[in-house]
Design a protein that fits this description.
Elements: H1 2-7, E1 14-18, H2 25-37, E2 42-46, H3 54-60, E3 65-68, H4 74-83, E4 86-89, H5 91-96, H6 105-110, E5 115-117, H7 131-142, H8 146-153, H9 155-160, E6 177-180, H10 186-190, E7 197-201
Parallel strand pairs: 1-2, 2-3, 3-4, 4-5
Antiparallel strand pairs: 6-7
Length: 205
Amino acid sequence: MIPALASEKLADAVDAFLEGIAFSPAQTARVFAAAKAAALPVKLHADQLSNLHGAKLAAAHGALSADHLEYTDEDGAAALAAAGTVAVLLPGAFYVLREKQLPPVEAFRRHKVPIAIATDSNPGTSPITSLLLTMNMAATLFRLTVDECLAGATRNAARALGRPDVGALEAGKTCDLAIWDIERPAELIYRIGFNPLHARVRSGR
């Protein structure tokens, strides 16, 4: 499947789910080898329910990102940092599944792993579409700071997608903006069920 998808330019990355109920490490490595042969970057949902050392496997394959990561250990965090792989936290899935194991945010901070946050919007385990609510959950459940939440939804999110052309207010990047009617950035994370969007700017318009 992967060579066909790549040749038709129907995919820009290959994602896998490494877990006891999903792909094994050997199966994941096989998928990633096929992706590399097709010149497609890889991403991995890993260490959500157990520590099968998915973070280290993702890092070994130069993954753009590794998602969930609740059971990632210190070695896994260090491996992500060395590879430049983004840790994507998914508090919506954590909430819906009533999980207890928190992702190792302090280890990510110590090793300077870039942290992104995402909705993981799906009907099975994370039926959430609001990025504002996701930022609130990341702060409330995972104790991310306001700055970490904002970077996680912008700059680091773009990095997790392999999109250096977006995600920050810098010369030469695509100018997609959200203009918020707020006094301070913390309001975006603090308030629940509130969307203070004033205007959107897409490609400068």
